[in-house]
Amino acid sequence: MTELKYRRVLLKLSGEALMGDRGFGIDPKVVDRLAGEIVEAHRLGIQVGVVVGGGNIFRGVSVAADGGDRTTGDYLGMLGTVMNALAMRSAIERLGAPAVVLSAIAIPALCETFTQREALRHFAANKVIVFAAGTGNPFFTTDSGAALRAAEMDCDALLKGTQVDGVYTADPKKDPTARRYERLTHQEVLSRNLQVMDAAAIALARDNKIPVVVFSVHEHGAFVNVLKGKGLCTVIDG
Ligand code: UDP
Q1: What pTM was computed for the model?
Q2: ipTM greater than 0.95
Q3: Which residues are annotated as a binding site for ATP?
Q4: Which of 121, 189, 201, 232 is the 20 to 30 A CA-CA neighbour of 212?
C-alpha cells in the first residue's frame, strides 16, 4: 500500500478551475470530476479542506477598474465563492462523502459560519470542509484565505491546483524552453516574484511553515497522486 504523504490538507481551487471551457460560471461536469478526486482522497482517510475562488463569477478589482467601489466589488466576489462552495458541497455529497460549507461571512440560510473550533469538530466528524467567502475581508484574495485556513486548521500542506503542473521558469504555454521547478523555498518565490499565489499568501505559508504544492487541476488523478508524494508538481517549502 502506498504511504500517504499528508494527513490533513487544504486544497485551493480557483473559480476558473470550476468554469471548464465556459467563459463564465460553473460547469457541473468539471465540479463533479474535481469533487470525485476530493471524495477519493477522503476515502483514503485524508482530512480535506477546500477553499474555492470566485473569479469565474466576480472579481472586485474589475469593479474598481471600471471606476466602481472596490469594497462592494470584493463582497460580490466573496459571494461568488459561496456559490462555488455550495455547488462543490452538493457534488461531494452526491458522490458519497459528508461535506459542510463554512463561510467567513454569515449566510445562515445557506451554510454554517466559519469558526476554527467548529471547523475542527467537522474534521473530527470526518467531513470534507468547503471554506467559502475567502478571508471575509475586502482587499484580500482566496489564495490568502487558503493560506489562512491552512494555518488555522494546522494543515500539513496547502495544495494549489493551477492551469499547469507546477511553477515554471517562464510561461510554458509561450516559452518552449521553460523548465518546471521541482522544489523552491517560500522566500525564493517571493524574491523572484514567481506567480504562484499572491505574496501575502506565500508569506503566511512561510511564517507558519506550511509547504505549498502546485499541481495541475487538468491532470486527472493529480490531486491524489500529490497526496501520495507522486506525480508532477512543484513543492515550495523551507
Ligand atoms: N475576495 C475578497 N476577499 C477575500 C477573498 C476574495 O474580497 O478574502 C473577493 C475579491 O474581489 C476576489 C474575488 O473575491 O477578486 C474572487 O476571489 P479570487 O480572485 O481569489 O478567486 P480565484 O482567482 O481563486 O478564482
Answers
A1: 0.97
A2: yes
A3: 12-15, 55, 59, 162-163, 168, 171
A4: 121
